[in-house]
Amino acid sequence: MSERSDQEDIRRQRRSQLLAQGVNVYPSKVSRTATLGDLATHWQDGLRQTVDGRISSIRLQGGSAFIDLQDETGSIQLFVQSKKLGADFEMLTANLDIGDFIEAEGETFTTKRGQPSLDIRGVRWLGKALRPLPSHWHGLQDVELQYRFRELDLITNKKSRPIFQARGIILKTVRNFLDQHGFLEVETPMLQAIPGGATAQPFVTHHNALDLDLYLRVAPELYLKRLIVGGLGRVYEIARCFRNEGIDHDHSPEFTQVELYVAYADYQWMMTFYEQLLLEVCQHVHGRSEFPYGQHTIRLKTPFVRLSFRQAIKELSGIDISVADPTLFQAARKVGIEVNTTMTRPQIIDEIFKTQVRPKIMQPTFVIDYPLELSPLAKKKHDDPTYTERFQLLLAGTELGNAFSELNDPVDQRQRFEAQEKLRAKGDEEAQRIDETFLKSLEYGMPPTAGLGFGIDRLTAVLMNQHNLKDVILFPTLRPES
Length: 482
What we know:
Layout: H1 6-20, H2 36-41, E1 48-61, E2 64-70, E3 75-81, H3 82-85, H4 87-95, E4 101-110, E5 116-127, H5 143-148, H6 150-156, H7 160-180, E6 184-185, E7 191-192, E8 204-207, E9 212-216, H8 221-229, E10 234-242, E11 254-263, H9 267-286, E12 290-293, E13 296-299, E14 305-308, H10 309-317, H11 325-334, H12 345-357, E15 365-368, E16 390-395, E17 398-405, H13 410-425, H14 436-443, E18 449-455, H15 456-463
Parallel strand pairs: 3-5, 6-10, 14-15
Antiparallel strand pairs: 1-2, 1-4, 2-3, 4-5, 7-9, 8-9, 10-11, 11-18, 12-13, 15-16, 16-17, 17-18
């Protein structure tokens, strides 16, 4: 990438020549009278207009030139003639390059072939491009370069921009839906003394002035529940979170998730609410309640299927997770899970679920009532305290939401944290830590509360029929270029 091509040398020479002639190829002000999209929507021949944009193609025909110009809203053909520009025509055509930004003034007209065009009276540079763009016709084919140089991907690949426009619509719709239902948007710390709220390994950093190690948050959960303790009945955060884990098609170390909490509600209430939210998002993105994903058509037909965690594993893997450890571990090996001596029972159960259940569920399904050992922050079920009031939404073979009836008993919560610490002592680096500040907060009293978290990246990927999170994250985490 550091070596210049012949085209780059030529472009730099043209830049130098223009500057030597007193041409400002990087001016500050523009005189645009209309975007290209507005011009096309309200098209009328014979209007004097000034437009701005990037050159996508140049075709010279004797004393004329046809230039295709694009801006963020559309495109137009510019018709440039030597007889109308005089000496400027030679200077212009000799120094223009595909990728340059220009401003063009002219009169609108429609060609004999019916193409809206601008008959140019004047052109000036707005920005000289020193590197050639990828092929206009073939786009940026190297997937690695698409992720590393997203700007080139957006310029050349027509399928990329709608994905990120849809992501913006999803974020806006989620925010509006929650605001309309009485939620308050808040912000909680990204630097935390104890990384709580999720079973995950954190990133660590150091604060020099305090001489203190801090962690990038893995979740905003514990802080948001402290706000419920403080009397804010409905809160949410659209949070950037960080987990020091592997990178694959379904995981990113940096991601965006929404977490919301509602006082005086439980996980059953949250299931119905989440159904409504997803339907609202799908309608804004697709205009209907179904969409394609791979070879499937996903239908958000409510109410979604409810399936208990134990039942889901038994039906889809044949394993009964209530059996003793030796039998469970042996069953896990039979379905292809690599069991080692450091793995705990919760890790084995979680691995069975991730490999044998989650990939097989395509239509929206609430898997409910998770084992206690997998849910250190969820309230126990009254009729069976070995399970909790928790659900995950499975859709298109992935997880699209995790929710609890939140644990509000501070004594029980301390015992759960202590159990997590024991798992950590056995080698589980993702086990949660005891957070004394959060426990003290619970001791002041928290009402019955329902909480939900879901990832914007995964939701966007599923709705836009993408099978790799890197395709819906503008600048995904990558290895440095060698």
